[in-house]
Amino acid sequence: MGEIFVLVEHRQETIRDITYEMLGAGEKIAAEQGSSLTAVLLGHGVKNAAEELALRASKVLVVEDETLENFNSPPYQKVLSALYTKYQPFLTLIGHTAFGMDLAPRVSVELGLPLATDCIGLSTQGSRLKATRSIYGGKVQASVSLRESPGYLATIRPGTFPAKTPAEKKGGIVIEPSPLSETFDARKFVEYFEAPLTGEDITQADIIVSVGQGIGGPENIPLAEEVAKNLGGVLACSRPVVDRNWLPKERQVGISGKTVKPKVYIAIGISGAFQHVTAMQGSETIIAINKDPRAPIFSVADYGIVDDFQNILPVLKEKTKGMK
Asked: How confident is the model at residue 5, as a pLDDT?
């Protein structure tokens, strides 16, 4: 069985988190298939990145070329297709990011390989790839089985899989010659521009206090926000809160919002619908407060409090003062 390729996503000399998450997903498939895990690093001046990746993969394939310093799908497509033709991997994983959504369909069409996009789960059945995808705005989970093929492509939703941790033993680093000889004038990288955040980035928070429609109304949100600030955390919410315009969209945790993996996630008045749980179940510690003992959120919570939030939040507010 062919190896598992993970296309490294990097930006401004920094490896993106999605890369480590794909390596975690790829490791599971490699174990199922008895194959090896290979990180594919395309870029320029990426020696340090290759050394770091060698602690998380059996092998790192490196293609260095000035044209690859910044992402541009035509040259990336040509290099990745050339590597596929040479190595014939069983599966190639690409992040479901702006980077991956541009590149993966192009490679799929060129190589004639089945492509599963925005995957939140992966497995194999014999020599066939199976994927779990979220559809209809997160209301339905679809399990799909791809047609028989010598190889597969899949894009992975960020924040879905646990990141691959470094190992003590380093994998090998293999330098492949660049197949690029022509210039790519149709599309060029001009500059990297990052839009300024309009508020706090909940995806980077270590502590999140998240409220749902069970909070009753917007008048109760400041109390939850005060608890979050006392803990040095941020305030987030579920989709119904955004739909009611109680909090802005940038605060939403869920399939149609943001995926988070904080150290502590406190869910207040959140029932625990699949759309929400999928986007926060990677949190290290989950604490749920809900007056309904049958609320689905308790099935993923490490600690649960069955009570009205109005009895709990004032106590939390007092207990957390000065904890930041």
From this structure: 98
Which tokens hold the place of 86? 């040479």
Asked if 259 contacts 203 with a C-beta cutoff of 8 angstroms, the reply is: yes
* HSE-CB for 266 with a 13 A CA cutoff: 21
Q: Decide: helix, strand or coil at residue 206.
A: coil
Nearest to 4 by CA among 91, 84, 82, 108: 91
Backbone angles phi, psi at 145, to 5 degrees: -115, 120
94-153 pLDDT, tens digit each: 999 999 999 999 999 999 999 999 999 999 988 899 999 977 766 678 999 999 999 999
Do 288 and 298 touch, CB atoms closer than 8 A? yes
Confidence at residue 192, expressed as pLDDT on a 0 to 100 scale: 78
Q: 208-235: per-residue pLDDT in tens?
A: 999 999 999 999 999 999 999 999 999 9
CB 52 within 8 A of CB 15: yes
Domains of the chain: 4-176 (3.40.50.620), 202-319 (3.40.50.1220)
User: Exposed, middle or buried by CB within 10 Å (0-12, 13-18, 19+), for 125?
Assistant: exposed
Question: What is the C-alpha separation between 269 and 251, in angstroms, rounded?
Answer: 16
- Check: pTM over 0.90? Answer yes or no: no
Task: Report the candidate in 43, 49, 46 with the shortest Cα–Cα distance to residue 66.
Answer: 43
Q: How many CA atoms lie within 13 A of 161 on its CB side?
A: 29
What confidence score (pLDDT) does residue 56 get? 95
Instruction: Tell me the backbone φ, ψ of residue 72, rounded to 5 degrees.
Output: -150, 120
- What does the buried/exposed string (b/e) look like for 273-299 if buried means 16 or more CB atoms within 10 Å of the residue's CB? bebbbbbbbbbeebbbbbeeeebbbbe
Interior/surface letters 217-250, b for 16+ CB within 10 angstroms, e for the rest: eeebbebbebbbebbebbbbbbbbbbeeebbeee
